Amino acid sequence: MEQKRLQDSLERKADWKYWGTYVSDRQWATVREDYSSDNQTWSYFPHDHARSRAYRWSEDALGGFCNRFQNVCLGLAFWNENDPIIKERLFGLGGNEGNHGEDCKEHYFYVDNTPTHSYSKMLYKYPMNEYPYSKLVSVNGQRSKQESEYELEDTGIFDNNEYFDCFIEYAKADQEDILCRVTVHNRSTDKEAPIHVLPHLWFRNTWSWGYTDRRPYIHKHTHNQLVSEEVHIGKRYYIVQTDESEQHADTNSKEINYLFTENDTNTQKLFNWPNASPYVKDGINNAVVNKWMDCVNHSSGTKVAAHCKKTLKPGESFTVKIRFANYEFDENEAFADFDQVFKDRIREADEFYENIVYKNNDCGIDFMDKDLKLIQRQSLAGLLWTKQYYHFGVNMWKNGDPAHPRAHPVHRNNHWDHFYANDVISMPDKWEFPFLASWDLAFQMIPMMLVDIEWTKRQLILVTREWYTHSSGQFPAYEFDFGDVNPPVHAWATLEVYNHILKTTGVKDLEFLEQIFHKCLLNFTWWVNKKDIKGNNIFEGGFLGLDNIGVFDRSSSLPNGAKLQQADGTSWMAFYSANMLKIALILAKERRAYESIATKFLEHFINIAKSINSRNGLWNNDDGFYFDSIVSPGQTESHQIKVYSFVGLIPLFAAEILDYETLQALPKFKERLDWFVRYRPNLVKNIAPFTSPGQNKSRLLSIVNREKLEMILKKMLDENWFLSENGIRSLSKHHLHEPYRMEGTDACVTYLPAESDSGMFGGNSNWRGTIWLAVNYLMIQSLRTYYQYYGDELQIEYPTGSENFVNLEFIADDISKRLIGIFRENKETGSRKFSQVKPIFKNEHWKDYLLFNEYFHGDTAQGLGASHQTGWTALVGKLISEIKFNKSN
């Protein structure tokens, strides 16, 4: 049934994706909500303002659900009678509070989701005792960057299992009929505790900014039924039921206690300015916690919560049911089919994911145990939960609104006034990175294509549209600076999706390929014009997503006019050229006009390969590695920065197979290929011999020839250098004992397998020894590409020094298994590597709930950074589909 819903959506027979889990986990302290004069995003709109201050652009919630344009939202709040505020959104430290930047200090898990959001489930773990807000801020604020972070479980709040498991589930009876089930479990074995469950319904504030004063409304309609109306979505009805007779907070009446207020800023509290009405955004919080009942009413508003309460005995549970639809309910029948709908949707979700396991497995499955299925399913569920309504217009934001014009000029995102987003977008992490990040999105679409091809294609196309992309051809980077530069991976992701469609359906989706190819042509030209200013095919680029990997901030200008020549920037452009060449060749088979464009990208690739390998290039034959280099004004010789990092491994990504059938089908292109070898031998002498046929008469287009490949792999596959038990490190471990120090400065790079020890790029990520899924995934792909060409004829010692020689496919599979092993359960210890330093994850009600962290400890695989970065860590789900498991592994 889920597959049919996807097909109906594709054919526009139905709109099953109109409603979904599209509400952000954090809207406060985002750039789009920052109207300060000094760009102090974290202090201008802190967490403490969020419950009282209306958002300008979009909403956040705990377990939120909304329509595509977020006219109206559903969400949950809880209260344990000990906290100073109700729990209606996730808490975390701001970028100026944590010893490693911003960090969410909650435990929540995205357990399940389907691509149409016909069924979704998450878990929030809510302490019974007072949540330690101030302690988390103060202790982390006292810790240095060399110390670990102080986490919620370190406070002892979960000791003796004194917490509630709050499961939030959604199911769709049909496209417009939304069911929500909230089940709270008391996990204590000896403590009775009260729990307040507050299902919320509210409208996004569109009336306070001076464009319209038209308010939507929510009214009491019948005994327990509410009616709401908004100009875009019309009338909808809302009803709540509990599983107990104790449905009212104060009496045993069966009537639900609805608390109404307005989604308006409490100006009196925040700015000492009288409120226009006693009913403001934090009214429900104040009524429940402080018993200020004059802050709410019982008849109408733009925000409402049902106040449901029960005292739970140890092991007892409490269920609250919500229904929200576009038709009026018969109150006696509103929940008659409720449980059956959930049973049906859960069964359909199980069937869908079982089909995913077998449909998308690339190698055939001998055996996939329950644990592997759990890892893959939760990784994909997290990916689907992190779809978010993203609303941001740069020009409107920079000028302010009619009711709130800007008092000071804004310089952030200069030259991006055209940018306007009003879309549901896949986010890297809906709490830590709740904004568009284009290179993250490209990686997200690789596992996303396993479950929803239509969504995948639309997301990749969206980033290239004219209201996103700059007129110069530059793709937007991320909200803090759309004009920054990320690695050019969009063409690669597009090619991956095209090949997946071809493999799984037999369809050549040339329209999709061609549409993005044309936009990438503009983007490629922007790269050539802006990042190769000297025209010598050696590229700059800045930090290129690798934050602190360099000895200094690579996005900053160097003193005295010196220029940084980047091994990764140059290699990414070779990679880009190879991907564009491959796309052009696919299109040329159907439309011959593309054959000459393919030749153009061949020339780009060859020229870049020549430059990076030239005497003044970035290759060092003595060290067998690629390095960034600095060129000072007036000098021809460059100074190499000998840091052994992933920067020097990225050249391996620039590898593409030219298959025999394609070359035979395109004789003009083959003729040009042969011409280069015959008449420009100086251009091709240092790169892979692409005229020599490999396996199946294929040709290899690669920056590195066999000699360089073997030299680089010797270091990469050395366990004392890059190879970890859990994947490839971002920085060689040998820098632990041999740190790189830049002559004449205090700058130093040493091996840091955990968190960053500097404030570079906010200090909240680390590329100096940690393991990142995205670049590991590309490396695995590259090894498979080289295997396609060399086959079993090329045997590599693995690991280095082991005297064990294997082919490159074996190495690719083994690195994949090492990465998957980060999430695997150890049957003997009961723990998983990513959480093994946290004993709480061994407990019965924790061990099967996974976190997909941003990156992982280079030695232990402990999860680090953002805790729900399925933005690219969901790639583990794709890795599971790519290798063959049996009972022995």
From TrEMBL:
SUPFAM superfamilies: Six-hairpin glycosidases (SSF48208). GO terms for biological process: oligosaccharide metabolic process. GO terms for molecular function: Glc3Man9GlcNAc2 oligosaccharide glucosidase activity. Pfam families: Glyco_hydro_63. Residues 565-793 form the Glycosyl hydrolase family 63 C-terminal domain. InterPro entries: 6-hairpin_glycosidase_sf (IPR008928), 6hp_glycosidase-like_sf (IPR012341), Glyco_hydro_63_C (IPR031335), Glycoside_hydrolase_63 (IPR004888). Coiled coil: none annotated. Gene3D superfamilies: 1.50.10.10. This is Glycosyl hydrolase family 63 C-terminal domain-containing protein.
